[in-house]
Amino acid sequence: MPVVEIENLRKSFGDVTALCGVNLRVERGEAFCVLGPDGAGKTTLLRIMAGVMAADSGQTGILNNHNADDIESAKQYIGYLSQRFSLYPDLSVAENIDFYRRLYKIGKKEGEERKSRLLDFSRLGPYINRRAKHLSGGMKQKLALSCALIHTPRILILDEPTTGVDPISRREFWKILYDFLAEGLTIVFATPYMDEAERASRVALLYEGKIINCDTPDNLKKLFQYQLAELTSDDNRLARQLLREKFSYENVVFFGDKLHLKVSNYETDSRLIKQVIMEAGINIFSLEQIAPGMEDVFVDAIT
Length: 303
Prior knowledge:
Low-confidence stretches: none
CATH superfamily of the largest domain: P-loop containing nucleotide triphosphate hydrolases
CATH architecture of the largest domain: 3-Layer(aba) Sandwich
Shape: globular
């Protein structure tokens, strides 16, 4: 049974269209990822889903509630973590959690039990008296997550929750989330990290306010109709320029400090790649065939 149903959702800010006819369903117990570049409409979509922003038109159903009054009442079942750390910097870890306990009208005894469990999960127990402004980025996000979970929501909505967080804290953050996911929590999240999207139950590819595809990571990768070559050299910019002349503009793109090339047959085309690069006097550090990742799938879908 879906816990989120969105139909033909539209939202504009002046002349800028943020969402243009978005449709999606999130099933109970999913880790559902919304993936897209900056400006795609991810934050707008999640804010409408969380009930903190109204759409211009379309229908939003949360836990089978579809009208405005019912969605307002459904907020008690939603936990929402925005992009920016929005807790109280001068309050301690414990005081921030207690504030949200009172905000959700949770009794002290029950709240203390929940707080104890969340502090254990997040490993923030030793820091309960530390002011939030003195926490590291990763600890701040775990505190924000604890506050979002204090009322035991059924749906947790996360807007790029680990952006700017170090890799170790990112892993710890997701370990906490997947422990709760195993208990039946539904998680909807946006992320710029492809490894996080890879772990989702399903991924919605959002681009220019439209969902261009939505499926499991494995099924999305099956749509990739090419073989993929990965190249590193001592002049990737010149290599990209030359290879685009041979393999077309959209088939050669930067991926960090590497080039990814969509080719029809790696065994044959790798020889042409080497020839083009070596004739230009460029040194090849590595050239290999790789499996496509979510970023390759996304770039292929929008080109």
